[in-house]
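Exercise: predict the structure of this protein bound to FE2/S2 (inorganic) cluster.
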Amino acid sequence: MDLRNSVESGTTLTPSPLITLRLEVNGKKHQVTVSPTARLVDILRDGLGLTGTKISCEIGRCGACAVQMDDKLVHSCLVMAYQARDKSICTIEGLAEGLGEELAEGSANEGLHFIQEAFLQEGGFQCGYCTPGMTMAVKALLDVHPDPATEQIQEALSGNLCRCTGYAGIIRSIRRAVNHINASEDMRNEASFIQDINRMDHYEFAHKIGWVYEHSPWIAKKAWESSPFYDREELMQTMSAVVQNADASLKLSLLRAHPDLGTRLKITDASQKEQKGAGLDQLSNDELTKFQSLNKQYVDTFDFPFIMAVKGQNKTTILEALQLRLNNTYEQEFSTALKEVDKIAGFRLDGLFQGRG
Ligand code: FES
Ligand code: FES
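Solution:
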């Protein structure tokens, strides 16, 4: 690419003395011959036709010309041509092409970078002059801080001036982009965890997974025979099917392996954590008496402990459920309790997949 031609066609570039330099823009290598007074923004716009990068203030104040140079955000109106020698530049056009980034798959705008998709969804595109630079600033931020604090967002946007609408839509867009990163991260964690457990032998598998069904590693042992598993869902469904297909006495032993809820009788660490979350360690005397009385009535009636997945519940909803379920027939309650066991196992499995188990 020789920018002397653009001088002849009337641009502001000075024809001499000229320098030749190589640089990479959006993954493509270029050689350009330019005046030493040319700026990176001139190379991009006039030399390479990448007009997505805008020029506004030309003194480094507005951020309209922001691009990444060797992964750092720069104002291309302030970068002299020689400073871009052998550098790798990413412009808004490179972002749209993906450059190895994860794209917003499945969206109506497939092919957009997920930051652009987030801007689109949240009304972050406010004007054509500022948005390319804003988007590049957000990319530079999220490259370094994938889950930025508010101050980091403010700092990152401090070089990009908006004089029209303000920053609310842009900040919402950043939050949406961050959610996308976190969701992608969860998926990667899940994929890596499932690979790990698919490599486990029978014993390792039961040791790692067996506890999600209270004191009942036989479920994981049986489920392992169906490995490898495609994902968390398939693993959970397999274990759940082991329970469903077990004979009645095994199912009963599974129910009886659970601790009494709210009575602080022998309970496992995992159950203690779950009960604390539901506020069952903060009962008044009256509440404790009521829980104990209903629980006794329950155990006398059904001959297994009251089981409820307490995540998202509180002592009031648990007490209501206990009262209600006392009206069930034995068969209804047996089935309800097993469903709750599955829910508990599901929550515990989620914790394992998220590294909290
Ligand atoms: S045009 Fe470069 S900062 Fe305004
Ligand atoms: S987004 Fe360009 S002036 Fe506000």
